[in-house]
Design goal:
Strand 3 and strand 4 form a beta hairpin. The protein is 23% helix and 36% strand. The longest helix is centred in the last third of the chain and has 12 residues. By secondary structure, it is of the alpha+beta class. The protein has one domain: Alpha-Beta Plaits (2-Layer Sandwich). It starts with a strand and ends with a helix.
Length: 113
């Protein structure tokens, strides 16, 4: 099993969610996060004063899938989140040793569906 974490632009969330549903991903966690990479923030105007925004708002999506789903899910996220502009985000894939559904006690692949 693998955990896929994607940091994307917030306005791409609905597109990515729809792409994940099309790949039969039934569970996902969405978190509002802030950070910067190559963008290094930006400047904004507020009441006539200019100020720096060091951390840009992003959305983090976390899903856990079986190993055979990884490539399809990663490709779906890449296509749905891509705007072709700087700051589109990153996708991280890591191993998961064990998953347990608390309510039923199901484990691993059975706990994902």
């Amino acid at each position: 099993m693998k955990m896929i974490r994607a940091i994307i632009k917030p306005f791409r969330l609905d597109d990515v969610k729809d792409a994940l549903l099309a790949q039969n991903v039934t569970g996902l966690t969405v978190t509002e996060v802030r950070g910067h990479g190559r963008q290094k923030g930006h400047t904004e105007l507020y009441r006539g004063a200019e100020y720096n925004v060091d951390f840009v708002p992003k959305t983090e999506i976390t899903v856990v899938v079986t190993a055979d789903q990884v490539d399809a899910v990663v490709n779906a996220i890449k296509e749905a989140a891509n705007s072709g502009k700087i700051g589109d985000g990153k996708i991280f894939v890591s191993d998961i040793e064990r998953v347990i559904r608390i309510r039923t006690g199901e484990e691993d692949a059975e706990a994902l569906s």
